[in-house]
Amino acid sequence: MDPTQWHVPYPLVVAALFVIVMLRANGTYWLGRAASAGARHTRLAKLMDSPGYLRATERIDRFGPTVVAVSFLTIGFQTVANLAAGATGMRLRHYLPAVTIGSVAWALLYATLGTVGVDILGRLYERSPVLAVGAVVVAALAIAGYLVWEF
């Protein structure tokens, strides 16, 4: 599903990507809600009713929407943020505006930078497969190095 091959107007690409990411993010949120509901029928129920857990879920509900919205500008963290929002029971009146803002940002970024990047990489591969593969390897090593450095 490469948006550079869709051959449709840019606004339609953005709209389609928005729908895709909204479905994925909300699906992840509802998986978190289901897991939390299931955990209430286990030994974890006592922990989930503790004052500390309840305070944490209240804080996530209050401050989490910003984290959810910003998570769409990261790679990999958005799934964790949406799952945590669901698992802690973030209210929909807080979650839905945050996920909508994040999804719009993600769709716009992916439709512009993502498709342009794929197109440029494809053109580079046509001219020099070695350089294209080298660019991907360097990018992967840079990301891996950053993650090792941070953690």
Secondary structure blueprint with pairings:
Elements: H1 10-39, H2 44-48, H3 51-71, H4 77-87, H5 92-127, H6 129-150
User: Beta-sheet strand percentage?
Assistant: under 5%
Total of DSSP H or I helical runs spanning 4+ residues: 6
Please give the share of residues in helix: over 70%
Rg over CA atoms, rounded to whole Å, is: 19 Å
Along the chain, the helix and strand elements come as HHHHHH
User: Ends: how far apart?
Assistant: 33 Å
Which secondary-structure class do the elements indicate?
A: mainly alpha
Estimate the mean pLDDT confidence.
Answer: 88
Shape: elongated
What does this structure look like?
- This protein is mainly alpha-helical.
- 83% of the residues lie in helices and 0% in strands.
- The chain is built from six helices and no strands.
- The protein starts with 9 loop residues before the first helix and ends with a helix.
- The mean pLDDT is 88.
Provide keyphrases for this structure.
single chain, 151 residues, mainly alpha, 6 helices, 83% helix, 0% strand, elongated
Question: Concise description?
Answer:
The chain has 151 residues and is an all-alpha fold. It has 6 helices and no strands.
